[in-house]
Amino acid sequence: MMYEVVIPAAGQGKRMKAGMNKQLIELRNEPLIVRTLKVFENDEWCRGIIVVINEAERTQFEQLFSRFHIKKITAVVGGGKERQHSVYNGLRAVKNSDIVLIHDGARPFVTIEQIHELVNEAKEHGAAIPAVRVKDTVKKVCDQFVEETVERSGLWAVQTPQAFHVSLVLRAHEQAQKDGYIGTDDASLVERIGGKVKIVEGDYRNIKLTTPDDLLFAEVILSNWVSS
Ligand SMILES: Nc1ccn([C@@H]2O[C@H](COP(=O)(O)OP(=O)(O)OP(=O)(O)O)[C@@H](O)[C@H]2O)c(=O)n1
Ligand SMILES: C[C@](O)(CO)[C@H](O)COP(=O)(O)O
């Protein structure tokens, strides 16, 4: 079942404090973004990759795509102020598919098995996202004091790729834009227009490299990685 994927990679990576776009950080001699792209490059169901970049970094990214032989890229589009704006720019470049995946450039450890499960579920339900059960106790805090302990049993931590019918996620983004609403993931935009979102059991290793500690976790994941 074929799909296209939008990869937002236009963030500044402020929390990583690397002084550069975190997607260009090398993990074992391979830039993070290249690791992410290779998963989709090697997936026979993927018919096109749309990468969203910061225009100031276009040349740097395009050189990487060519150096690492990433051939499925169908568009490289400029990003926006928030992740959501970048994703919307990418979605408008989807041309040939009913199903689109949206996947953070900063999550290199997604597997093809996970992708296929999400595509199948999205085809059936309209939207499907990977998530892992929250393991810690979660508290709502205000001014450094606990307001309440949140019931944990229904809490899941959500990842990407998030998979959608193209028409549904475009409608959700357009409505959010009209309302001036910014969500922290794409599924939340679908939820707010009444769309059902199916949860697929995720993988704790599918981390988003966000802070410097995540580089250590990435090393550990890589040293135990058995590629599929
Ligand atoms: N305006 C933005 C912001 C984020 N992203 C991308 O969205 C993904 C998830 O975002 P996050 O990890 O929060 O990245 P940054 O926004 O770069 O991080 P920070 O908030 O620490 O600056 C990343 O692959 C990032 O490059 C994007 O394309 N456009
Ligand atoms: C989309 C996401 O990766 C799901 O966990 C996450 O919400 C992105 O959040 P950020 O604010 O860009 O870190």
UniProtKB/TrEMBL annotation:
EC class (word): transferase
Top-level taxonomic group: Bacteria
EC numbers on record: 2.7.7.60
Site (Transition state stabilizer): R15, K22
Gene source species: Parageobacillus thermoglucosidasius
Keyword list, A-Z: Isoprene biosynthesis, Nucleotidyltransferase, Transferase
GO-annotated molecular function: 2-C-methyl-D-erythritol 4-phosphate cytidylyltransferase activity
Entry protein name: 2-C-methyl-D-erythritol 4-phosphate cytidylyltransferase
CDD domains in the record: CDP-ME_synthetase (cd02516)
Xref: PANTHER family: 2-C-METHYL-D-ERYTHRITOL 4-PHOSPHATE CYTIDYLYLTRANSFERASE, CHLOROPLASTIC
